[in-house]
Specification:
5 helices; mainly alpha
Length: 81
């Protein structure tokens, strides 16, 4: 299944719910590993900005997508940080 198939299913009311198996719920989730030294630095920035590491990373991703013109105004409003 490719990403276009997922978008079609979500748009047709077949969105992902908690009733689905985790491997289907996480299909659009981004996961990455950060070495401990980098994590400490990211954590320092997050604490300085009074936010969680997760929110800081989501904010940076959203800002980068806006800068690159990857988000429309509607998509930007739907992109929750």
């Amino acid at each position: 299944m490719n990403i276009e198939d997922l978008d079609e299913k979500e748009g047709s009311g077949g969105g992902f719910t908690s009733d689905q198996p985790k491997h289907k719920q996480f299909i659009k989730m981004l996961t990455f590993r950060v070495v401990p030294a980098y994590y400490k630095e990211i954590d320092k920035v997050a604490k300085h900005k009074n936010m969680s590491v997760s929110k800081l990373i989501r904010t940076y991703i959203k800002e980068g997508m806006k800068k690159d013109g990857e988000l429309t105004d509607k998509e930007e409003k739907e992109f929750e940080v």
